[in-house]
Amino acid sequence: MLSWLNKIYKNYLPERQLLIRQHGEVKYVNITGLTQLLLLSLTTLAFIWIVYSSSQYFSLNQKVSSTHNTLQQSQQHLDHLTNEYEQKHHALNKELNQLQQQQLFLQNILDSFPKTINPDSNKTLAPSNNKILIEESIKNASLLDEMQTSKNELLAVKLKQESNLQQLAIQLHERKSILDKALSSTNITNEMIKNHFSMNTTAQGGPLYDLSTKATDKQKNIIDQLIELKELETALQNVPVKLPAKDYYISSLYGYRKDPISKRRSMHKGIDMAGWIKTQIFAPASGTIKRAGKNGSYGNFIEIDHLNGFSTRYGHLYKIKVKKGQTVTKNDVIGLMGSTGRSTSTHLHYELMFNNKTINPLKITKALENVL
Question: Which CATH number covers residue 347?
Fold first, then answer.
């Protein structure tokens, strides 16, 4: 083996002379085989190092390029997630604002309800606490799944509010049905009440908050129902439902009867309420004294205009305690029971009129006393 290497060494790396010419002089430099082997080895090592370094550089460059691409993709994905987060956050905030407005609308509906309707406010507005928790959840949400949870909770609140809104609409409808049914038993319809009703706008005002462009169709419908009901309730506030004395008994009913004096068939357009002399007679509802004084067979007589088509008359009074044009409120004492005029003994002749036609006061009392 050594002889073979020695042979290769002598054949390929013989001693060589390097001719160097400088300034007209020629010099010879002997290069031995060992020197040549050393130079060849150094050259080979240098070439190997260059090749290796180049391969490492290209490999590292590929890794850097791959890492850069990965970072770009990650950045794009992050930008996409950020954009999606912002969109969902904006959508949730928009949904929350809508729910807050809906909550305010529900509260305003409750505050506007007539006093005759007493819905369970705590039950109706139960979602408000959830709304606050959801708002905090949105503020603190950092992950999309948490936002999805908040979205689901908002949806639950929205469904609850829609249910509450529907329940309020049902309560309005039920109250309206009760009033319509009560009025129908007296032969007075809602339409008849409307024809005589005039909204008093005296001493009213304030900034205009027009809901025509803000409320939904469903909300507008409920508002219209509420306004209609409140107008009906207002119109019925001055209906003379109570009978105008505390201590009495009915001595003669409304309708056809045998006249107590002439004994002939006659129409009794009121009821007779008998009691002790000087029994206090009070106004069954607010109104204005239309007439007060002597009035033929009525004797001492009072007539009260209760607005909206209703009026009452009081006959045979012992004493009148009001004057024409005077405003009275419910339960104000207007006179004392007596037996003046065409009367057989102490009693009050009481008439109730609607649209200038007499109606049975007992029918009105029976129909509306437990409703208004």
Answer: 2.70.70.10
Instruction: Identify whether residues 253 and 193 lie together within a single domain.
Output: no
> Looking at the domain assignment, is residue 185 inside a domain?
yes
Same domain membership, residue 310 and residue 224: no
User: Which residue do the tokens 């036609």 mark?
Assistant: 357
- Return averaged pLDDT per consecutive 10 residues of the chain, 372 residues in all: 68 73 73 76 89 87 87 85 79 79 82 76 50 50 64 79 85 89 84 76 75 78 88 86 94 95 94 97 96 97 94 98 96 97 97 94 91 82
- C-alpha span between 331 and 284 (Å, rounded): 6
On whether both 267 and 160 belong to a single domain, the answer is no
Q: Label residues 184-211 b or e (16+ Cβ within 10 Å = b).
A: eebebebeebeeebeeeeeeeeeeeeee
CA–CA distances in Å: residue 143 to residues 140, 150, 152: 9, 11, 15
Rounded CA-CA distance 187/234 in Å is 19
**Among 178, 43, 184, 158, residue whose Cα is nearest residue 101:** 158
The DSSP bridge partners found for residue 350 are 271, 314
DSSP readout, 97-141?
HHHHHHHHHHHHHHHHS-TT----HHHHTTHHHHHHHHHHHHHH-
Same-domain status, 217 and 270: no
Looking at the structure of the chain, the number of domains it has is: 2
Q: Are residues 191 and 274 in the same domain?
A: no
Range of the domain at 171: 104-200+210-237
Determine, yes or no, domain membership for 60.
Answer: no
- pTM recorded for the entire structure: 0.66
CA 366: distance to chain centroid? 37
| 347 and 227 fall within a common domain | no
Give the pLDDT confidence score for residue 141 in this predicted structure.
47
CB 280 within 8 A of CB 246: yes
Work out the number of other CB atoms within 10 angstroms of the CB of residue 114.
15
Quick one: DSSP state of residue 13? S
* Sign of the four-CA dihedral 280, 285, 290, 296: negative
Domain for residue 31, yes or no?
A: no
> In Å, what is the CA distance from 81 to each residue of 75, 77, 273, 341?
10, 6, 83, 94
